[in-house]
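In response to the reviewer comment on reproducibility (Comment 2.3), we provide here a single inverse folding case reported in full, input and output, so that an independent group could reproduce the run without further information from us. The structure tokens appear first.
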């Protein structure tokens, strides 16, 4: 957040007399400041009801500095129905895989590579989820606004217990790989030859954004 003393805002929210007053304070602060995803979550914690948290998200959506880390905001909602509403507010497409497939044909460059600290947060968040559906929500959010190295993709799909879920995650992430010349490492996350073959077929898609780097053959 720029300019404003964020701890002071949190204290003021604690002293507010009603949810309506809290939202008015946040709206006023948002007019001249921006926020990180972590700060948005801290604001949520000052609100008693989910409907107020969603309202605040609507207010702050365009004021988030690190929108690529918005998976953290969705994870802050405990139930999937509220996570779905948060995804809608954040303008997350319903079918991320289809959206990425289409955009890969028109985009001139990949989104920025996810930085190490947020990436570790993503891995932790994936480990904490109880169901694959919730893990996919996080992967889709992260993939929509970030790109990844082959090693990062490998670490992500390792968080899924079953091969079918690993392959489903790869179907999404394959459009966001910055170093396709190294994508062979992704196959090491899979245990069975049949699954490695399926992964290899998924990774064989054309990628015009990341030109393949040839592997030099030593001269004999």
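Designed residues, in position order:
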């Amino acid at each position: 957040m720029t300019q404003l003393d964020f701890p002071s805002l949190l204290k003021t929210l604690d002293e507010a007399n009603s949810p309506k007053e809290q939202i008015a304070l946040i709206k006023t602060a948002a007019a001249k400041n921006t926020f990180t995803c972590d700060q948005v979550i801290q604001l949520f914690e000052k609100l008693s009801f989910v409907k107020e948290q969603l309202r605040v998200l609507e207010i702050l959506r365009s004021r988030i500095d690190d929108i690529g880390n918005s998976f953290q905001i969705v994870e802050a909602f405990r139930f999937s129905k509220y996570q779905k509403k948060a995804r809608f507010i954040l303008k997350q497409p319903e079918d991320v895989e289809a959206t990425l497939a289409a955009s890969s044909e028109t985009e001139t460059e990949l989104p920025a590579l996810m930085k190490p600290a947020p990436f570790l947060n993503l891995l932790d968040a994936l480990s904490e989820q109880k169901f694959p559906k919730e893990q996919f929500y996080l992967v889709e959010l992260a993939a929509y606004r970030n790109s990844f190295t082959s090693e990062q993709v490998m670490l992500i799909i390792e968080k899924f217990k079953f091969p079918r879920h690993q392959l489903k995650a790869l179907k999404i992430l394959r459009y966001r790989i910055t170093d396709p010349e190294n994508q062979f490492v992704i196959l090491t996350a899979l245990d069975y030859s049949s699954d490695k073959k399926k992964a290899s077929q998924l990774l064989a898609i054309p990628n015009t954004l990341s030109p393949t780097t040839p592997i030099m053959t030593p001269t004999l």
